[in-house]
Every structure is written in structure tokens, then in C-alpha cells.
Amino acid sequence: MAMAAAVLAGCERGASSGAAPYAPGPASSGCPAVLAGARAAVARAERPRTAWDGPTTGPRAVAGRSIVYVAQTMTNPGVAGAAKGVREAAKAIGWRLRVIDGQGTPAGIQAAFSQAITLKPAGIVIGGFDPRLTSQQVAKARADRIPLVGWHAVDAPGPSRDPDLFSNVTTRVRDVARISADWVIAHSRGRAGVVVFTDASIPFARHKSELIKKQLATCPGVRLLAEENIPIPDTSSRTPQEVSSLLSRFRDRWTHSVAINDVYFADAAPALRAARKKGGGAPFNIGAGDGDPSAFQRINSRQFQAATVPEPFSQQGWQILDEFNRAFSHRPASGYVAPVHVSTATNSHGATTWDPPGYRAAYLRIWGR
Fold first, then answer.
1. What is the pLDDT of residue 30?
2. For the purposes of burial, counting CB atoms within 10 Å of the CB of 21, is it exposed (0-12), middle (13-18) or buried (19 or more)?
3. DSSP letters of 231-268?
4. Which residues have CB under 8 Å from 137's CB, separation 6+?
5. What is the mean pLDDT of the chain?
């Protein structure tokens, strides 16, 4: 990615310890109202949550059910993190769980979904893939009266008619995109040169990056330098080269980056080190999604990532089980959507995941466990 601040004299090649001070100067005169709004929104999102704000009532646990979690790929930290939460919740509610890995390919996901249906479970989780890729399997599950609950399966949270999902558990993409852009606006005081990293092959990711760009454009002092389209499976091979190219093109005009997934910054780090950039200096990078443990490690150690908008993976896993329990009890979906949160080195306190308080006790009370 590109960097903005000048490298301090005397730093050794590859060194990245310490945070270089960022001093963009006075706020852009073109967006004082936008800047004020961004600062207020970021302050709210960075505030630690102290109490559970989700459902506190619902049906008691239905006994003896089995669930299959069909994973897009268990190498995706978000998919694996949600699966871990489902596993923990299944043990707490007393249900059986099986995870089938789709290996990240359309054929593998379709085969995993077909296998899940043959097991005749009470419910199937669509873990991190677009159900339109498995339309035949979705139709078969519907014919067999197997309810489907998605995790990041479609753009919007809650029930879905097309594709047919009892509920989809996710944060709101527009909220994640907006707070990521607001963080850049607030952090830069309305003056930034930004690179956006996306994967245009994924409709969800492409939509998110479009929303990010739209919000960045509300502040005239924030300039979009480039949008890099790198498919997530290619990040390790392509990101370092692209980052080196961006550094050559933009030099200190590149002050901030937003990526639709934290993984881009893991793969950008070698190129940034090679350019003698400081891990805590520009470009200041925020991940608009996931918040996997490696992202928290980079943030806490100030290694080429300043912030992330994390998903509460474990809480979402418990919510998935609660949604199934409502389906089995012929009750409507809970309608709960976790609010966006921004994690930084200041408020994460060394944690390696975003795990809001109170949900375990709340769900156990609902289920009568």
C-alpha cells in the first residue's frame, strides 16, 4: 500500500517498531460537518460494550436436534470462527453438530451441501457462501423441509425469501462500510489519500467497496487514489507486488487504506517492510470485515494495520443456534443484528477477537439451560 508519512531517519531496513506520528494538518475546509459526524460515529463504535443488547426472550430449547455447518472453506478465519461459535453453542444447548468443509471451490461447496442433505439433519448452516451457487441443493433442502440459516450468506441480515433462508446472521454491510470510511475521515481529519482493496468477483465484497467509496466521497479532502481488485484466493501472490507498485506511484500521497477483508494487510506487510515503512505509520489501514486473530495481532503490535471492524464470530455462532431453535419451535426469527464495532490497539486491550459480553448467559436463560 502506499505510505504517507516520511520515514524517520536512522530506521533500519525492514524495521517496523513504533508508531510514526501522523499530522495531516488542519481539517479539510470542504467537509466540517462530515468530519464532525464521522468523529461522533467512530467514537460510538470504539466504545466498549458493557451489556448484552440482543434477545432476552424466546422458546426453550428443543431437544435432540442435529445441525450440519457447510463451510465455504475452513481456511477462512471468519468462516472458521463462526463454526467454532456454533460448536460451542451446540454443546451448550445439547445438539449434535457436524462441519463439512467446501474447500473454497464451487464444486467442493456443492458436494459438501449435497452431503449435508443426505445426513437428514434438522437444520443446515450456509457458512460464508452465496446460496445461489448451490440453488439445486437449496431447493432440495426446502423440499425436505430442512430450514437453512446463513452466516454471511446474503447481503442483508434476517430472513430471506430468495434464496430461502430462515435467517441470515451478519452485520449490516452498509454499517460496516460506512464506519470504515468514517474512521479514515476522522483519523485523517478530513485529508487523506486512500487505496481501497476489494474482490470484485464476490458480489457482497464488490457492494461493500462501492459503499466505502461512496462514503469517502462525502469529504472533498479525502481522495480515492486507487481501487485494487485482488481476488481473496490470490492475495498472497498478488498483494505484495501491487503494494510495491502503489508505493512507487503515490509515495507519501498514500495515507490510508480500506480493505473488504483483513487478509490484504497480512499480505501487504512484506512489501511495506521492504519499503522501510513503519508498522505504526502511514498508510494507516483498516479492515472492513472479519477481525480475525491475525488482524488483532497486527493491530495490537502496530504492524501495518491500525483498525478493524470485526464480526463477533462466537456470538454469531450462538445466534445461529438460537435462530434454528426458533424455527423448530415455529417462531419467527429474532431479528437481532450486532452493532458495528471498531477495534484498535487502544480499546482491544490485547484481545485477539471481538467477543461482546452477556450473550452466552442470555441464550442459556432463553433455552432453559
1. 67
2. exposed
3. -GGGHHHHHHHHHHHHHHHHGGG--EEEESSTHHHHHH
4. 110, 113, 114, 116, 117
5. 90
Cell of residue 1, nine digits? 500500500
Place of cell 467454532: 84
User: Partners of 123 in the beta sheet?
Assistant: 67
How does residue 225 score in pLDDT terms, banded at 50, 70 and 90?
Answer: very high
Query: What nine digits make up the cell of 325?
Result: 431453535
253, 246, 277, 256: which is closest to 38 by C-alpha? Answer: 256
What whole-number distance in Å separates Cα of residue 199 and Cα of residue 203? 8
Q: Which of 91, 96, 99 lies closest to 70 in space, CA to CA?
A: 99
Upstream peptide bond of 283 is cis (omega within 30 degrees of 0) = yes
Residue reference for cell 468514517: 182
**Terminal Cα distance for the chain, rounded:** 49
Nearest-angstrom CA–CA distance, 99 and 28: 50
Distance separating alpha carbons of residues 151 and 127, to the nearest angstrom: 5
Helix or strand (DSSP H, E) at 150: strand 148-151
Q: How does DSSP assign 56-81, residue by residue?
A: ---PPPPSS-EEEEEES-TTSHHHHH
DSSP helix/strand/coil, 223 = strand
Query: Could you read off the pLDDT of 131-184 as tens digits, one per residue?
Result: 999 999 999 999 999 999 999 999 899 999 999 999 999 999 999 999 999 999
Name the least confident of 61-70, 155-164, 198-207, 248-257: 198-207
Q: What is the pTM of this model?
A: 0.86
Mean pLDDT, range 59-77, rounded to an integer: 94
CA distance 364 to 55: 11
Q: 18-32, 44-58, 71-85, 112-126: lowest mean pLDDT where?
A: 18-32
Is the CA virtual torsion 343, 344, 347, 349 positive or negative? positive
Please report the pLDDT score of residue 21 as a whole number. Answer: 38
**Residue 287: count of CB within 10 angstroms of its CB:** 30
Q: How far apart are CA 269 and CA 151, in angstroms?
A: 29
User: Which is nearest to 216 in space by CA: 24, 20, 30?
Assistant: 30
